[in-house]
Q: What sequence folds into this?
């Protein structure tokens, strides 16, 4: 019986690379690795530039509405903290921190006469105001970058209600993405505890009571319960963010603080997450 072809020697030295060929192949592999690293770095730089541009647009919308950039910064960190407490992964929670500040980016398309009106909106003005969710989703949703896809989801769904009476799609219950449910609660609480053109800020205790009143109506009961159960830590986190101002760079760049480590040191994380947080770098400022 003939030996298998794989065992037959090739003629001459064709089955061996000479040293020059081996060196050329090694150099080619190294060049491809370098090209891959440079490509990834370029993509990350482009994504970061897009992120900062969109954050600045969101900041412009927020200035029109609240005269401060602190709100969108706080929304990001409160949303990350809630996501961690609810069991989302660190990666998903960190992405939500970056996506949540763009929740109201669509307000850039709402007239000032509506946005800054110091009284109740009439039906037509309410219709114009409600369009900001769809406008925001349209601005963000054309990107294939996961961060912007999450931001579009948040913009589209953070005004949906647990009872199905929200907008723009009238979603209800768990058909509303968890990202939208989290940001809705964080946004509501933070908006209540800041001065607006039509009313002064509510005290924390009043805001928590109002949040509890919307449990199972506007908001996911589980998210509300988690916020209220850990309110001292979340309010402390909010106060910590207020100490740093509203610079967009602290959202576009590295995290201002390690939220999981902050919660762990506050004693408000499950034991398994506390153990993981102790291994993470970066001290809480």
A:
């Amino acid at each position: 019986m003939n030996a298998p072809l794989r065992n037959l020697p090739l003629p001459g030295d064709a089955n061996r690379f000479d040293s020059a060929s081996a060196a050329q192949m090694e150099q080619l592999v190294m060049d491809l690795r370098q090209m891959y690293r440079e490509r990834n770095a370029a993509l990350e730089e482009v994504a970061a530039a897009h992120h900062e541009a969109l954050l600045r647009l969101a900041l412009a919308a927020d200035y029109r509405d609240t005269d401060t950039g602190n709100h969108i910064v706080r929304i990001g960190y409160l949303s990350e903290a809630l996501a961690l407490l609810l069991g989302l992964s660190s990666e998903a929670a960190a992405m939500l921190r970056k996506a949540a500040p763009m929740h109201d980016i669509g307000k850039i398309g709402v007239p000032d006469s509506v946005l800054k009106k110091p009284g109740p909106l009439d039906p037509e003005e309410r219709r114009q105001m409600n369009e900001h969710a769809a406008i925001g989703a349209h601005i963000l949703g054309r990107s294939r970058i996961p961060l912007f896809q999450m931001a579009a989801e948040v913009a589209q769904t953070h005004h949906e209600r647990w009872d199905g009476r929200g907008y723009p799609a009238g979603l209800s219950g768990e058909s509303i993405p968890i990202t939208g449910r989290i940001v809705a609660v964080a946004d509501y609480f933070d908006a209540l505890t800041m001065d607006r053109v039509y009313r002064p800020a509510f005290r924390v205790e009043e805001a928590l009571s109002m949040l509890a009143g919307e449990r199972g109506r506007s908001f996911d009961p589980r998210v509300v319960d988690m916020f209220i159960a850990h309110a001292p830590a979340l309010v402390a986190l909010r106060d910590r963010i207020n100490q740093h101002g509203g610079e967009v760079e602290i959202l576009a760049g590295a995290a201002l603080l390690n939220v999981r480590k902050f919660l762990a040191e506050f004693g408000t994380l499950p034991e398994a997450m506390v153990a993981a947080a102790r291994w993470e770098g970066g001290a809480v400022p």
Observations:
- The chain has 13 helices and no strands.
- The CA atoms of residues 52 and 252 lie 5 Å apart.
- Confidence is low (pLDDT under 50) at residues 274-285.
